[in-house]
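Hi support team,

I submitted a single chain yesterday and got back a structure, but I'm not sure I'm reading the token output correctly. Could someone confirm the output below corresponds to the sequence I sent? I've pasted both exactly as they appear in my results page.

Thanks,
R.
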Amino acid sequence: MKSSRFVALALVAALLVSGCSMLGVAGRETRENVLPPLVAEAWPCVEADVVRGINDARNEFDIEIDTAAEAVRRTGEWSMAVAVGEAGPIVELYRRDWARFSYYADRGIADRVDDNEIGPGVAESRLERVRKFGEVLRVMSGEPTEPE
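Hi R., thanks for writing in. Yes, this is the structure output for that exact sequence:
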């Protein structure tokens, strides 16, 4: 039941994002009432890859332990914001953290491949989910989307 709900929400998100890409912006109603539940549905999966990437960076000494701890703490802020479901706080976090979180998510996915937890096909699917998640956040922020 939950997976069919997720698939339905993913299809709606894909349609919204693709439509928004053509238009450049989404309506206020969509940004404030439709997209936040989609973000809340997808966030736990994206968060897992973000945290994995943060931990990989820490383990490889690419970031300091304090920096990693702060980044993980910020994922908690995201979890609280998406649980509340209001677009404003999510957009603020997107503007503050998404460029870094997107990098960590990609790194976390690569680490899963390196550790033979997932194969290239699954990795590609996860990377696409992160990309679409970022597009939905960009649409929520009111920023124009980039044409594909």
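A quick pointer for reading it: The CA atoms of residues 102 and 130 lie 7 Å apart. Let us know if anything else looks off.

Best,
Support desk
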